[in-house]
């Protein structure tokens, strides 16, 4: 199986040269530039994460993906992730079927429950219904992408009776993944809906997730399904040397970690903890050969069909991100492919 390599961003609000945070409007324009470069250097897919807060600029991924699609010709256009529980499956289907049409069949969506929950009160949903909202809406969305006429009823929205939704998908359909943070229930759910899984591995060794990979394979086999692709999303940063990559990434990642940690009760990030993740965990930070070696190891260990690097690193500046993308596409990926071919 050919392995796909992607880049993900949440539109992290970045610093300017004076370490002042840029306006979100400027960050959004930078994201488009970054995706255009990713296409030019041979990256297979760009994934945009949805958030509704001041430290991440992307709240409407599909609009940004449409802008990217208009300036690119090859790269696939996806999300990382779409918070399905706080959205309407019918409108979501329409947005992605439209994106797929205008981009020549390059759209895909990754659905998730969301580790940030600000969208639920923002859009009038009760957090007490968090699990039901996702389960019911996933059931409806799965029908929408597979059936021309949909009949559905549930507790979270109005029922549908032999409803057709426009515009329709093309013959190839819509590629749809489920983002999983590491619960067995989420793994089994992905198999139940016959949607490939992307594991968000953002802490600890990737091998720590082997039990979930085994469960995914076993559940697919028990359901009589052909093996489905498996992907991983993890953070990283590429620079000319290991030292430069670490020195650039740490202060920015610490700013991101400590901001979120202040809301969730985490301790402040220490450099030694950061370096532990870089050397043995889930952060792919370093020179091209270092990052390539670690990505190839993860792809081989988990038997991946896709690896997506979250290249935005908190407020790390746009120039550093552009250089990281260039190195990832032009140096890291050829080395990874060569390492995998050699076994």
Automatic annotation (TrEMBL):
<dbReference type="GO" id="GO:0004497">
    <property type="term" value="F:monooxygenase activity"/>
</dbReference>
<protein>
    <submittedName>
        <fullName>Luciferase family protein</fullName>
    </submittedName>
</protein>
<dbReference type="Pfam" id="PF00296">
    <property type="entry name" value="Bac_luciferase"/>
</dbReference>
<dbReference type="GO" id="GO:0005829">
    <property type="term" value="C:cytosol"/>
</dbReference>
<dbReference type="InterPro" id="IPR050766">
    <property type="entry name" value="Bact_Lucif_Oxidored"/>
</dbReference>
<dbReference type="InterPro" id="IPR011251">
    <property type="entry name" value="Luciferase-like_dom"/>
</dbReference>
<keyword id="KW-0503">Monooxygenase</keyword>
<keyword id="KW-0560">Oxidoreductase</keyword>
<dbReference type="GO" id="GO:0016705">
    <property type="term" value="F:oxidoreductase activity, acting on paired donors, with incorporation or reduction of molecular oxygen"/>
</dbReference>
<feature type="domain" description="Luciferase-like">
    <location>
        <begin position="19"/>
        <end position="299"/>
    </location>
</feature>
<dbReference type="InterPro" id="IPR036661">
    <property type="entry name" value="Luciferase-like_sf"/>
</dbReference>
<dbReference type="InterPro" id="IPR022290">
    <property type="entry name" value="LLM_Atu2307-like"/>
</dbReference>
